[in-house]
Automatic annotation (TrEMBL):
The keyword Membrane applies. GO terms for cellular component: plasma membrane. Its main location: membrane. It is found in: Cell membrane. It is a lipid-anchor. It catalyses: L-seryl-[protein] + ATP = O-phospho-L-seryl-[protein] + ADP + H(+); L-threonyl-[protein] + ATP = O-phospho-L-threonyl-[protein] + ADP + H(+). The keyword Transferase applies. GO terms for molecular function: ATP binding; protein serine/threonine kinase activity. It holds the Pfam family PK_Tyr_Ser-Thr. This is non-specific serine/threonine protein kinase. One of its GO terms (biological process) is brassinosteroid mediated signaling pathway. Residues 60-326 form the Protein kinase domain. Belongs to the protein kinase superfamily. Ser/Thr protein kinase family.
Amino acid sequence: MGARCSKLSVCFFPCQIKFKSHLNDTFDTESGSKNDDLLPGFCEFSFDQLRTATSGFSSENIVSEHGEKAPNVVYKGKVEDDFFIAVKRFNRSAWPDARQFMEEARAVGQLRSERLANLIGCCCEGDERLLVAEFMPNETLSKHLFHWDAQPMKWAMRVRVALYLAQALEYCSSKGRALYHDLNAYRVLFDQDCNPRLSCFGLMKNSRDGKSYSTNLAFTPPEYLRTGRVTSESVVYSFGTLLLDLLSGKHIPPSHALDLIRGKNISMLMDSCLEGHFSNDDGTEVVRLATRCLQYEPRDRPNAKSLVVALTPLQKETEVLSHILMGIPHRDAPPKELPLSPLGEACSRLDLTAIHEILEKVGYKDDEGIANELSFQMWTNQIQETLNAKKRGDSAFRSKDYATAIDSYTKFIDGGTMISPTAFARRCLCYLMNDMSQEALGDAMQAQVINPEWPTAFYLQAAALKSLGMENDAEETLKDGTGLEARRNRD
């Protein structure tokens, strides 16, 4: 089957293929970065493309929405080949300077890290300002930490989240983007493997109507309250509040948490769900690191590199994949292979003798329910001749006289008074027996037209395709037939 191309696919999809195929050998586990030369470039989307991708910015596709004062809504979108994106649409009063918006977007779009939900494009048309990022299907840290359903987040996963975020911040700092606006549990997203990633949206400088911190003032860095400016030290302070979230399983104001720590009431700070699942030394080390991040004076806080160094030795169960730690089925796990039926197995081997035996045994039972609208002519000599042709074809088929069977079934089919997918299936096999693979494929496809849910039609197509040397197509058609047969058996 031919690939479809569009302005969007030319710009975007070849990059994604490269992005995924080089993932393992370009990833730097220390910094969370990847080799920029092997990654997709930044794309400019048209507004129409993004409107189509989000079904007209449907409310059903909203994945993140803030209060009335917040200048944006985030939508889930889908582009060609079912590739999902996150589209952040600002309101019309945000980013009045188109040049500033494009410069910021392109700068953030140059970053590429496995620790980020990367920015892959933007749109700037008229008053419209939109950002396009990789879509993360497994929700936010806030959801898994504060509003979990099946199980609380394990300690090993919590310290992994902390490390991966520290690596994300270190990578951004190394690329000259140390400032992150409003780092909180809603900005931490989980990808298809359930690995945590930092949203790239927080790396954009403030728009005219936006705020660097939308959370409660109790969680805002003290220097921001004094100056209204975000610094790299402010980002570390916010990282400290995230460490408190991970420790407690709740969104505790830093001042309250620090009071508990100073009063040596650390046990009251810890999430009761974690009791007995981590060592006192590890818990104490994370508390100590959070305390350092939350120092009042910015100069007393560690930098991103120090965070990575401190968190690396605390990693537990490093060989266990994140989706297993999270207790979430892997969305990209290959589907379980369905076993082939005897006919499917015979077609996959192109065992024509076995196919003949099965078709002969099954007979015409699969023709039941196929509409045959016969008029008065069924009582005439014409219908009798048609039925006689079918009988001669069946007799020749039974005795393996395939040339005669082809001739007789052709007369029956061309008579046009009755519809029989089985007759096409039988003639298909006769064609295969006579090395007429193209004609066989045509008959198998015609049988499918008559009965679209008939597995036998797909199996015989696969046999014809295999006979024509089209192995990959034959394999896919076999899977289609197997899926139909499994569904039929369930029903």
